[in-house]
């Protein structure tokens, strides 16, 4: 299959260079049948490529038929508005020819999914459609989602392919249950990651699991709140996707990786250029398409690989000098470059660029030889009480020296333990500061924002809140709802008047702050005895019903059920979050070894293959 793709790409290059239009005479007659000139063209190119003339003729005919189909589709689209979509099916269903589907772009994603399921024999609820590297949204029209004429659509199946054979009622039920479970897993993944991201700075690190973002040494990174959640969701989806990749569940991994890419794109460019996570994600996405045998469906594979290469350069330095300065070595990160060169070699081969493919594959092969680990050395480290993962990472960091690797692993364990202890203490102090501000009446989110602005300084955070009293209701209360509350208690008004504030102003302040005397007094004192203009509201009917807090309105039974569901979702995420911070650098390289050898044999055959007749 890979060799045929190379030949297709090479012939397409020749046709473009020679400006050959296969859909016109003399290669296509008036009845759109193949012309005699195509045989001469096949002979010319087979001589040039030194390969079988019949094989070249067959592929050129396929290219000609596709060009005619595309032209017919274009004419039909102009006349009727009915678009053609090129459907890429799972490997088990794919034919030599691409599968085309016609549809209007005004239909919904659900309608398109139904059409695809009906046309190709899928169960509708158990497939996902990926177009333009995004999951198709069922409720929106194709037009709204940027779907255009001649777009490529990839079908991901949520059930095991072999289960489609020899069905009986019981087997079909099991199939459906499996697909439903996989879909539920995807939904739980989303919910679990959102919970963990929201918890980040609001839980006791000793008692409650949460997600945090650390640099290459393991220390937490200070990130603007506006980007923190998006980055945490991006990294969480990436880890979940990587867990599926390890289990070779590529059809489920890809949606997670694409979701991670979407959230990363919400972060600023400067941030993405300083962390290698985004680069690793690009490699994982291209790898996933390749393992699904759908690399041709990823139009920007080259762009993603170049993006990864540039990002590594920005993060690690021109010759990895920044990485060596931080970590003392760059042996472990070479695994990423091996994957990068391998994918660049594969992409070039599939694009018909034989020499470029050879160059990248040779670099990948050389790196593999450097990174290969003697199993006996891993065994020696296992005997010392280290894990297989620690052994592989340590040996690569120390160029295969067992003694140095043992020392490296021990030192790293001690260093990480100290960092985690310091980070937990820092988090505990922050939680105490948040609690202090909450006791003063501020919402947890307002407290977090103020402390972030003040770099953790409690006094400066309080001054920030007093200078910005509108932050009091940030994600906690709403000024409009507070202005609807009944008249404040007379006792509270009297307290403020006793402090020297005007009665009318005191009552207005208590309305704004929901009866909280302390907040009202602090704000009035800070602003010279008056409310800032943005906190002044027109008088409201005192008989209005007070707003109810979420904690007052939640029923015990439903709250308990929701809590159980959240716990389940979180636990499922935690199962796939690796304990080792360098898990993404650990690989046995078994798959890479096989694929490097396979594609090197292909590029060697480009020159050495004898001409067949």
Plain-language structure description:
The chain has a five-stranded mixed sheet with strand order 2-1-5-3-4, with helices on both faces. It contains 25 helices and five strands. 60% of the residues lie in helices and 4% in strands. The two termini are 20 Å apart. The relative contact order is 0.07. α6 runs parallel beside α9 and α7 runs antiparallel to α9. It is mainly alpha-helical and 613 residues long. A hairpin with a 2-residue loop joins β3 and β4. The protein is globular, with a radius of gyration of 31 Å.
Identify the notable features of this structure and list them briefly:
613 residues, mainly alpha, five-stranded mixed β-sheet, 25 helices, 5 strands, 60% helix, disordered C terminus
Strand content: under 5%
Task: Describe the main β-sheet briefly.
Answer: 5 strands, mixed
List unreliable stretches of 5+ residues: 160-172, 203-209, 474-484, 538-560, 609-613
The string of secondary-structure elements, in order, is HHHEEHEEEHHHHHHHHHHHHHHHHHHHHH
List the helices and strands and how they pair.
Blueprint: H1 2-17, H2 37-49, H3 53-80, E1 82-88, E2 99-104, H4 109-120, E3 127-131, E4 134-135, E5 152-157, H5 169-199, H6 225-246, H7 250-264, H8 269-272, H9 277-291, H10 301-316, H11 321-327, H12 334-350, H13 354-371, H14 375-383, H15 388-397, H16 402-439, H17 444-453, H18 458-467, H19 479-483, H20 490-498, H21 503-512, H22 517-526, H23 550-553, H24 556-576, H25 590-608
Parallel strand pairs: 1-5
Antiparallel strand pairs: 1-2, 3-4, 3-5
Helix pairs in contact: 1-3, 2-3, 5-6, 5-24, 6-7, 6-9, 7-9, 9-10, 9-12, 10-12, 12-13, 12-25, 13-25, 14-15, 15-16, 16-17, 17-18, 20-21, 21-22
């Amino acid at each position: 299959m890979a060799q045929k793709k190379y030949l297709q790409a090479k012939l397409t290059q020749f046709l473009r260079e020679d400006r050959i239009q296969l859909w016109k005479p003399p290669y296509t007659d008036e009845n759109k049948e193949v012309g005699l000139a195509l045989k001469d063209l096949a002979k010319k190119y087979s001589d040039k490529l030194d390969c079988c003339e019949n094989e070249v003729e067959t592929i050129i005919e396929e290219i000609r038929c596709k060009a005619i189909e595309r032209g017919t589709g274009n004419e039909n689209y102009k006349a009727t508005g009915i678009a053609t979509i090129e459907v890429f099916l799972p490997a088990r269903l794919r034919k030599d020819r691409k599968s085309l589907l016609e549809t209007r772009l005004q239909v919904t994603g659900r309608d398109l999914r139904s059409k695809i399921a009906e046309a190709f024999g899928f169960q509708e609820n158990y497939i996902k459609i990926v177009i333009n590297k995004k999951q198709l949204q069922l409720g929106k029209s194709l037009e709204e989602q940027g779907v255009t004429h001649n777009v490529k659509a990839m079908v991901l199946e949520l059930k095991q392919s072999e289960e489609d054979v020899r069905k009986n009622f019981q087997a079909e039920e099991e199939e459906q249950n499996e697909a439903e479970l996989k879909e539920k897993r995807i939904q739980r993944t989303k919910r679990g990651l959102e919970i963990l991201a929201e918890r980040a700075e609001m839980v006791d690190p000793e008692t409650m699991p949460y997600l945090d973002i650390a640099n290459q040494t393991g220390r937490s990174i200070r990130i603007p709140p506006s980007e923190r959640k998006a980055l945490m969701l991006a990294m969480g989806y990436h880890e979940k996707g990587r867990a599926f990749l390890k289990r070779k569940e590529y059809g489920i991994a890809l949606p997670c990786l694409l979701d991670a890419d979407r959230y990363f794109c919400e972060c600023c460019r400067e941030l993405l250029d300083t962390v290698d996570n985004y680069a690793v994600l690009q490699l994982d996405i291209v790898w996933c398409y390749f393992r699904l045998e759908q690399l041709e469906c990823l139009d920007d594979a080259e762009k993603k690989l170049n993006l990864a290469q540039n990002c590594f350069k920005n993060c690690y330095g021109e010759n990895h000098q920044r990485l060596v300065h931080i970590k003392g070595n760059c042996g472990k990160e070479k695994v990423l470059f091996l994957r990068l060169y391998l994918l660049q070699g594969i992409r070039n081969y599939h694009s018909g660029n034989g020499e470029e493919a050879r160059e990248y594959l040779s670099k990948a092969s050389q790196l593999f030889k450097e990174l290969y680990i003697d199993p006996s050395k891993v065994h020696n480290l296992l005997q010392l009480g280290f894990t297989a993962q620690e052994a592989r990472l340590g040996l690569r960091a120390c160029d295969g020296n067992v003694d140095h690797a043992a020392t490296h692993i021990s030192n790293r364990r001690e260093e990480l333990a100290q960092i985690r202890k310091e980070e937990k203490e820092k988090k505990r102090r922050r939680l105490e500061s948040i609690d202090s501000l909450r006791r003063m009446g501020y919402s947890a989110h307002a407290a977090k924002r103020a402390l972030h602005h003040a770099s953790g300084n409690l006094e400066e955070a309080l001054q920030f809140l007093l200078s910005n009293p509108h932050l009091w209701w940030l994600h906690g209360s709403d000024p409009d709802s507070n202005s609807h509350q009944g008249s404040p208690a007379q006792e509270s008004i009297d307290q403020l008047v006793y402090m020297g504030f005007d009665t009318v102003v005191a009552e207005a302040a208590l309305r704004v702050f929901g009866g909280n005397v302390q907040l009202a007094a602090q704000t009035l004192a800070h602003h010279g005895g008056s409310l800032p203009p943005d906190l002044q509201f027109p008088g409201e009917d005192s008989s209005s019903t007070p707003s109810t807090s979420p904690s007052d309105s939640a029923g015990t039974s439903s709250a308990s059920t929701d809590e159980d569901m959240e716990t389940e979702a979180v636990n499922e995420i935690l199962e796939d979050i690796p304990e080792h911070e360098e898990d993404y650098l650990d690989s046995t390289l078994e798959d890479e070894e096989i694929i490097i050898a396979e594609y090197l044999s292909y590029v060697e055959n480009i020159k050495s293959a004898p001409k067949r007749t």
